[in-house]
Amino acid sequence: MIDSSFLSKIFEFELINGPFVFRKFTSLKRASPEDLIFISSAKEAKKNSNIKVAAIITTAELKEFFASHQKLVIVSDIGQAVSKLSYQLQKNNSQPKPVKISNYPNCTISETVLIGQNVKIGANCVIGPNCIIEDGSIIGDNAHFKNNVTVHNDVIIGNDVIIGSGTVVGSEGFGNFRNKNASWDHHYHLGTVIIENRVSIGSNVTIDRGTFEETVIGSGVIIDNLVHIAHNVVIGENTAIAAKVGIAGSCTIGKRNMIGGMVGIIDHIKTADDVIISVKSTVNKDIKEPGVFTGFMPISSHSRWKRIAFWISKLDKIVKLINIKNF
Fold it and tell me: Considering the entire predicted model, what is its pTM?
C-alpha cells in the first residue's frame, strides 16, 4: 500500500478529508475501493460522485460534484499530475542478462538472448538471436520468436505463438496530452499486453501496452508485417490484419475480421464480428454489423471533408428522390 504522503514528493495538491493509502493508481473503469483514480470532467464527476475508491484526483472546479465524505486530491492541472504520478509508478526493470540455457532445458534459445528477472518460458520454445525478454513476462509452450524480438515487462504470451523479427510487444503507448502551456505531457502506461494462443505476428510489428488495462490479441489472430496496434486495443479471435495497418488506442475489433493493407482505424472504434475492411480504407465510425466495408476520401480541409462525406452518404437517396434510372 502507498501512503498519500508519497504524492507530495511529486506534485502540489490540496487534500480534502484527510490522508489515505492506496493499492494502485488506475482508471475509473478498473477502480476498486483501494485504488486512486482521476476524474477530469463534470459528466464523470456527476455520474461517479459517490464511487468507492481510496481517493480521487480532480480539480477545484469539480469538487462540488462529489459526496461530502469523498477523499479528494485537488490539483490545478489533472493531466500534469497524472503524467508525473504515472512516471513515478512505472516498474523499474532490471537490466536483462545473457540467458542461462541450462535454465530452459526443454527449449532452443540463442546464446545472445537477454532475459530479465522472474521470466517464465514454457516447453519447446525457440527463441532466436538478440531477442530481449524483460522482467515478469510469461511465455507459453511452443513459442517461436525469430531474431531481434523485444518483449517488454509483464507481458503474457500464450501457447503456439509465432513472432517475426524486429517485433516489439509491450512498448510504451502514445498517450500524450497538452498541458496548460500548450506543450505535451506524456501519460506513462502501467498496463500490459496479453497475446492468447495460436497467434502469428509478422516482422516489425509494434503492440503497445495498455494505459492501465491490457492490450489483448485474441486466439488465432494473424498479423502481417509493419502493423501498429495501440494501447488498450482488443483484437477478437481469428481476425486477420494485413501489412501497414494502424489501429489507434482503445479500439475493439470483433471476431473473424479481415482488415486489408494500409487501413487506418481511429481511436475508440468498435467493429462487429465477421467484418471485412477494404484496402486503404479509413474507419472513422463504428461498424455495427457484418459485411464488407470501404471508405476512401481525398484529403481536404476538415470542414469541407465533412460536407462532402455527408452528401456522398446521401447519394443513393438523392438518386431515388429525383428518379434517375440506370445511375
Answer: 0.88
